[in-house]
Amino acid sequence: MLSQSAATIETKALFAKAMCPPPADDQFATVMGLAGMVATSFRYQKDEEIFGEDEPAEYVYQVIHGAVRTYKLLSDGRRQIGSFHLAGDVFGLEYGTKHRATAEALCSTEVRLIQRRSLENVAKVDVQVSRILWNVTSGELRHAEDHMLLLGCKTAMERVAAFLLEMDRRLKASSMVALPMCRRDIGDYLGLTLETVSRALSQLHDQGVLDFSGARQIVIRNRQRLRDINE
Amino acid sequence: MLSQSAATIETKALFAKAMCPPPADDQFATVMGLAGMVATSFRYQKDEEIFGEDEPAEYVYQVIHGAVRTYKLLSDGRRQIGSFHLAGDVFGLEYGTKHRATAEALCSTEVRLIQRRSLENVAKVDVQVSRILWNVTSGELRHAEDHMLLLGCKTAMERVAAFLLEMDRRLKASSMVALPMCRRDIGDYLGLTLETVSRALSQLHDQGVLDFSGARQIVIRNRQRLRDINE
DNA sequence: CGACTTTTTGAAACGAGTCAAGTGCAGTGG
DNA sequence: CCACTGCACTTGACTCGTTTCAAAAAGTCG
Fold this sequence. Notes:
The structure is a homodimer.
Chain A: H1 6-19, H2 27-35, E1 40-44, E2 49-51, E3 59-65, E4 68-73, E5 79-85, E6 90-91, E7 102-105, E8 109-115, H3 116-125, H4 127-153, H5 156-171, E9 176-178, H6 183-190, H7 194-206, E10 210-212, E11 217-220, H8 223-229
Antiparallel strand pairs in A: 1-8, 2-7, 3-6, 3-8, 4-5, 4-7, 9-11, 10-11
Chain B binds a DNA duplex through helix 7.
């Protein structure tokens, strides 16, 4: 990764800044504003690795557009996707020196990135920045705790309902949920096989809870029913 | 909770300070040293609630002796224990204003506690304290991510092996692991039923991997075998 | 269109859950 | 000191939800 020339990266960074103003509540933007740090941007194609587990954590990332999965593997290939990161989300922030998961682009994805070192240096003297780092990690922990409850307790149908509600909340453009990930990714996120995910979605479709326009374009017809299933 | 008189609490705090000097790498002690904050201590009996989910997070806690479980519930009573907190562990630290889990004593337990507000006030001006809060939350996140891998991917036997190795690492006094929690707690931590936990332990016993002196006193005879099972 | 990947669907197998009974251990009181 | 009681734990038999394996259908892209 990061094999492009510095000039290319700089150019892309400028372009990105001009075209993609960050949202108002964007913590990363706050950090950069406070610190006067220079962020650059980078593009990854589908399934390209952004960083690997146990690699030195040199950068902190934010999704500009596209989507990212972060996961851990067992030695025999079983995979647990810990999170999906969508536009605006920060990922790859570590307190320690190494990444504790692998990150890959789900589709063509552009990320903003800043050096961990520069962020650290600012955080050493600026309490506000330091607090923001804590807040980012705290948000990840909240998600992880909710997800443990799902993985440890919920049935297949409850997991799929929870997933749909999460995606609906996080990427609702109009009434359509456009999933950037395949059934296998959903399965590895929910602790299920891709077949079980597919069967649950089919069942919800049969019950009229949702409609498909292609396998990844979903319209939720009965949000309350999903909430009920999810408990 | 916290229904004892202020005088009682103060007394107990002093006693605790005299009797229980914190370990050298104790982050909580570091915070208190830096901030000049007054900590007090409190005792809970077996199964007593320390704080409840969604309650205002007024205090941050540290186990002096004993053990604590923190968990989330579904509406029908299914329970996911997120962590066990043993002597020295900090728990109940929130970035937001509410506790996101319930905490209960596993056995007779003494905790040190300090006001969240006073910690916040110090963290607002002291970058070192702010960093420590981030580090504590980051440690919880690391554990949660490892646990998601367990809950999403591992077999019953692998989960139990992982649990034994975790407890061996965290509370090894000599060669004996003295579990403070019952089979149901272990099950709710590992996303299994208590019967499945019991069966896995019996199987490990039959294979000579471990010995019992009573159900909760376990001697690990073949640590490497457990590591192999855990992958 | 044709080749490929992704998704759906079916049937059979399996691991963990459920239900129920039996065992063991700690604490209590005769 | 020992039966009695109440839990915690173990074990067995059966059930069930999910996985596995396989094949067909749908969708994607050069």
